[in-house]
Amino acid sequence: MNLSGLSLRDLEYVVAVAELRHFGRAAERCAVSQPSLSAQIRKLEEALGLSLFERTSRKVLLTPRGEAVVAQARTVLEEARRLLALADGSEGALTGRLRLAAIHTLGPYLFPHILPPLRKAWPELTLILSEGRTDSLLEDLRDGRLDAVLLALPVETDGLVAEPLFFEPFLLAHPAGHRLGSAPHLSLADLDPSELLLLEEGHCLRDQALAACGLSARGGGVHATGLETLRHMVAAGAGCTLMPLLAAMGQDGAGQDRRTVGVGGLVEYRPFDTPGNGVRPPGRTVGLVRRASDPRARGLRDLADLLRRDPPPGTEAVLFQRDE
User: Fold this and answer.
1) How does pLDDT run across 100-145, given as a tens digit for each residue?
2) Secondary structure (DSSP) of 254-309
3) Domain span at 11
4) Strands 267-271 and 260-262
5) Which of 77, 178, 262, 263 could tie 251 with a disulfide, CB 3.0–4.6 Å?
6) 168 and 22 within one domain
7) DSSP-assigned letters across all residues of 64-105
8) CATH number of the structural domain spanning residue 62
9) Are the C-beta atoms of 231 and 199 separated by less than 8 Å?
10) 292 touches 286 (CB < 8 A)
11) How many domains does the chain divide into?
12) What are phi and psi of 190, to 5 degrees?
């Protein structure tokens, strides 16, 4: 097969099927009919002399050689976009489609805050939002399935660039009428480890809560699959948990005041005492992570600056100076 028989459009089809694992949804994304997309991929497979996909009646899988071809196809498409950006003078700008994801415990509460300024700054940008766990998001980012992710820092940044945005404190979520609700002060030392409710393994918030409380990975005997389930376990009187501020604010108007309530008055939230001397209360630093090789690096830096200039209420912007 020579280069004249290879089109960028064919590569877009292949990458879409690889990402969606479905020919119909891939055709919708590419704005073509499914028969046309399938025929072009078959034609490309015949020209290359290999099968890119393992097709069954229930799912589509990449073959081992197909994985290598798709990885290279992503690189080719990224470089083609860079070429077009050079031609029209928009190199580095945020244009076209931006695949932005966030961890489960952040996305639903942060997206409503950042979408208005983001849409105002880049009205022509097509946003594709998603959620996931830290490990899977970083894998998708490295493989080119995502353009940027919002998550808790630090993370392993081999081949990636992480920019801190803001510090989000944790609140204590406890059942209404709990003994800690009337305590004059609140610190992590006041928590009973046997009452601590956690997310299941794989959630970074679980690890952050354990680290903040000085507990081992085996700490806490009751686990929840998601943050909203965790909140309702507190409402049911099963125990207490550390709740990110944005998640607390997003529930029934709860905020950062000392006696705010949620879930129909069954859950109370209160902040931990600030230690002072520049020491922050328990919490997490939220950052934006992107590939170091992304041709839209300038635009993604502008995005990070925008989010840092206008952090969500109750959070604190993180001072950051770039080396690049």
Assistant:
1) 999 999 999 999 999 999 999 999 888 999 999 999 999 999 888 8
2) --SSTTEEETTTTEEEEEPPP-BTTBPPSEEEEEEEEETT-TTHHHHHHHHHHHHH
3) 3-88
4) antiparallel
5) 262
6) no
7) HHHHHHHHHHHHHHHHHHHHHHHHHT-TTS--SEEEEEEETT
8) 1.10.10.10
9) no
10) no
11) 2
12) -80, -10
